[in-house]
């Protein structure tokens, strides 16, 4: 039976990486019926919003979506479609694995960690206002419910993936009430998982330790903003945004998307790395229980990287987006 999946190409480089990922996934043998829905700024004249209701309806109906990046105006304009989607669909857990891959030239070996980022609150609640002309205020929301839920998610993921340690990352020395509550919840939930080592770390120290010895970390769990920043750092440890996949998981639905954004300066040039999107597709197939096609794609990606002949510019090669997808498809045949 076919899986119905919502495909959101997004904008900027989104459509080209979505096309590449769709071709690779279809070639893996899995039976997927794609429902393609458009989003973004271009829709505003027609629908009055960059996120028309039909997008949310499609995801709610199909329960699974593969999504390309969507541009957010800086400093003004409409609210981030990405943040709105996560909040509207209650996609409370953002999962971003960072793993050393063969053939990718990086400073580190043996990195294999997962960043679990709380996705619905913190400074991303979007509650900010100007105080007169010369000041502005943003409100940081941390709740017991969301904190316990995300830490439990991180421990469950650790158990499921056979991982040994969860590190809760915070700044509770300064934000004693907000991050203090997050840490209190993390310690409480950790008590329910005696089989998994728990530690906590202040976010600045965490960044230093990650660049010194990333192989010492396994699962990191963080409030929203630190999670956003630290997950890009972790992507940098293993080869950059071009290879960093992600998933937004809720109780009822899941949306899979690369960590990177719409990279507007590369849009339409067929040169961006499609791997982050393809590997997000692999995570999606695992979520759907399609482990064989997922493994087939992952092995083909590793084979292309090991061979080192068809790599995009960010990995030191000169292959195009579509050539890299072709190379992965040919390794599956
Ligand atoms: P970005 O991730 O789009 O790009 C930053 C740089 O990283 C690019 O210029 C490029 O050099 C490199 N890069 C990114 N993806 C790559 C890939 N697949 N292959 C090779 N190199 C790659 O970040 P930005 O420029 O800060 O953001 C652009 C827009 O994307 C903004 O509007 C931002 O709000 C949005 N954004 C969207 C999402 C999302 O949809 N989930 C996430 C992050 C940023």
Automatic annotation (TrEMBL):
Keywords: Magnesium, Metal-binding, NAD, Oxidoreductase, Transit peptide
Top-rank taxon, per record: Bacteria
Segments crossing the lipid bilayer: none
Cited Gene3D superfamilies: Isopropylmalate Dehydrogenase (3.40.718.10)
Cofactor(s) required, per the database record: Mn(2+); Mg(2+)
InterPro entries: IsoCit/isopropylmalate_DH_CS, Isocitrate_DH_NAD, IsoPropMal-DH-like_dom
UniProt-listed GO biological process terms: isocitrate metabolic process; tricarboxylic acid cycle
Family: Belongs to the isocitrate and isopropylmalate dehydrogenases family.
Name this protein carries in UniProt: Isocitrate dehydrogenase (NAD+)
Organism: Desulfofundulus australicus DSM 11792
Lineage: Bacteria, Bacillati, Bacillota, Clostridia, Eubacteriales
């Amino acid at each position: 039976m076919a899986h119905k999946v919502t495909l959101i190409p997004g904008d900027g480089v989104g459509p080209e990486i979505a096309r590449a990922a769709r071709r690779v996934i279809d070639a893996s043998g899995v039976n997927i019926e794609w429902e393609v829905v458009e989003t973004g700024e271009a829709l505003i004249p027609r629908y009055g919003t960059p996120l028309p209701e039909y997008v949310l309806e499609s995801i709610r109906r199909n329960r699974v979506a593969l999504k390309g990046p969507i541009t957010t105006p800086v400093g003004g304009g409409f609210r981030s479609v990405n943040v709105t989607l996560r909040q509207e669909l209650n996609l409370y857990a953002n999962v971003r694995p960072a793993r050393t891959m063969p053939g990718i030239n990086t400073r580190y070996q043996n990195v294999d960690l997962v960043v679990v980022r709380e996705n619905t609150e913190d400074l991303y609640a979007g509650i900010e206002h100007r105080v007169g002309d010369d000041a502005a205020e943003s409100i940081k929301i941390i709740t017991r419910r969301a904190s316990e839920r995300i830490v439990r998610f991180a421990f469950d993921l650790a158990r499921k993936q056979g991982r040994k340690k969860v590190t809760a990352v915070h700044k509770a020395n300064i934000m004693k009430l907000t991050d203090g509550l997050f840490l209190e919840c993390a310690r409480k939930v950790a008590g329910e998982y005696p089989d998994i080592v728990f530690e906590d770390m202040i976010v600045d120290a965490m960044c230093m330790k990650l660049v010194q010895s990333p192989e010492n970390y396994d699962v990191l769990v963080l409030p929203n903003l630190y999670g956003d920043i630290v997950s890009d750092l972790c992507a940098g440890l293993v080869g950059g945004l071009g290879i960093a996949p992600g998933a937004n998981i809720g109780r009822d639905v899941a949306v899979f998307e690369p960590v990177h954004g719409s990279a507007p300066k590369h849009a339409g040039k067929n040169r961006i790395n499609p791997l982050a999107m393809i590997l997000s597709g692999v995570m999606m197939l695992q979520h759907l229980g399609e482990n064989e096609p997922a493994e087939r794609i992952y092995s083909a990606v590793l084979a292309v990287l090991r061979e080192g002949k068809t790599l995009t510019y960010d990995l030191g090669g000169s292959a195009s987006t579509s050539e890299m997808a072709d190379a992965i498809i040919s390794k599956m045949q």
